[in-house]
Amino acid sequence: MRYLITGGGTGGHIYPALSIANELKKRHSNAEILYVGTEKGLEAKLVPREGFEFKTIRVKGMPRKINKESFVAMKELFLGLMDSKKIIDEFKPDIVIGTGGYVCGPVVYKAAKKRIPTVIHEQNAFPGMTNKILSRYVNRIMITFQESEKYFKYPEKIVLTGNPIRRDIVEVDIKKAYEDLNIDPKIPLIISFGGSGGQKKLNDAFVYIIEKNISNKELQIIHVTGERFYKEFMEKLEKKNLTLGRNIQVLPYFYDMPKGLNIADLVITSAGAITLSEISAIGVPAILIPKAYTAENHQEYNARAFEEKGAAKVILE
After folding, report:
1. 25 exposed, middle or buried (CB, 10 Å; 0-12, 13-18, 19+)?
2. Which of the listed residues 164, 179, 211 is the one where a domain comes to its end?
3. Looking at the structure, do residues 174 and 239 belong to the same domain, yes or no?
4. Are 129 and 252 in a shared domain?
């Protein structure tokens, strides 16, 4: 079978898509899988690393309020629909799977209009705009949180699946993880990160936390700034004359996150859906700081769902 998978922008949309793609490949060795994203999205970097064929369309997110950017976005959407039609006609998928983000809108819509079986997956407790629009056209709506069901108008299409996670999250060699990450297993480890793109408020807090713990040999910290914040973060440390020792690591992006999560004693993070699913699978204690500026404030919905079940502590930005 031919599977076309699309979703992008942030890791929260990309990692579930890659988990689905990898599981399909494992179960069906002859499966043909094509991933469709954008040239500038994080998926352009992550998908080729996983070895899947990758094609792009022209599309950009629609502003929440009508302004001059809205007209640019409408033009891009029209181009994206044309690109999607061309890719679908050439690849001839048997099924199209969308995991959210504006990139999957044109692709899934065009597939549905061609009567190709279509499925969307919603990772968050409060659904994103793209998935809410697509829900009218698709065959099935897969959800992660039971709480999100009430926001869709087509309950007969809904299937509660949870969030697909990478197998490597639960298949970590713990001893090797300590060695690879240069972590002492006898000393508590805190890992902090604000999702795949970073979180400014969390970074600001960790400048202070690192300053207070720079000489603390009874604590280890791995802090992930996000690539766009890394230079600024390191400059702030330099201004304070802080030199990192063995106990503190600062990274722009953490490619070894599965290893890190499995050996962490505490995770301090934002409340993206894929992150929550991964820390749930491992069972690591967490403090959640939902990003206040996310669409429809969906991260707070995610965090509160965990808090209500006693799975995490929540601190607002």
Report:
1. middle
2. 164
3. yes
4. no
pTM for the model: 0.78
Provide the number of structural domains found in the chain: 2
Q: Which of 142, 164, 186 is the last residue of a domain?
A: 164
For the chain, what percent of residues have pLDDT higher than 70? 96
CB 288 within 8 A of CB 278: no
User: What tokens were used for 148?
Assistant: 């999100």
CA distances from 50 to 12, 46, 47, 93, 213 (A): 16, 7, 5, 20, 37
Q: Per residue in 275-287, pLDDT tens?
A: 999 999 999 999 9
What average pLDDT does the chain have?
93
